[in-house]
Amino acid sequence: MLNKTLSNTPVRRLCGRAFSILFALTSIGIVVATLLGAAHEIFNAEDVYDAMNHVFVTSVSNLVVALTIFDLALVIDAEFVGEDSAGYSVEEGLRRTVPHFFSTISCALAVEGLVLIIKYNQDGMYENIYIAIAIIISSAILLATLALFLKLHRSA
User: Fold this and answer.
1) Is residue 141 part of a domain?
2) pLDDT tens-place string over residues 6-54
3) Which of 48, 83, 118 is the last residue of a domain?
4) Given CB 3.0 to 4.6 Å as the disulfide criterion, which of 39, 61, 83, 116 pairs with 132?
């Protein structure tokens, strides 16, 4: 079953292109909304220092999500629409996309955990730092499982 080649049908390409564009537009929308929200908050703040701290934490968090969604759009475009999307087995497709997507998600989780540590430290919410540490540990677990997947997959 895994050795069947992926077909490059027009429906597959059309759906791949539609989802790729949808995710790319969502990512661009998040970036624009983040920039507009940051500018609005800074220019309308009474205390610019507090506003800058809040804007930094919120913006980094939103931009990490936007980057992850944009990366998903690129993966969908490469796997379903790109010229090299046909003619390889499902197993080869998994070998190409799973490591890329898992590493992006792991990096996004690690950055999100670090942003939460900064936020909780600035707000004096030290009891919530365990949440951020759990997120960073889950990122490390994802990277370890990715390494195990790659090791087992190459030896098979």
Assistant:
1) yes
2) 556 777 778 888 888 999 999 999 999 999 999 998 888 888 777 887 8
3) 83
4) 116
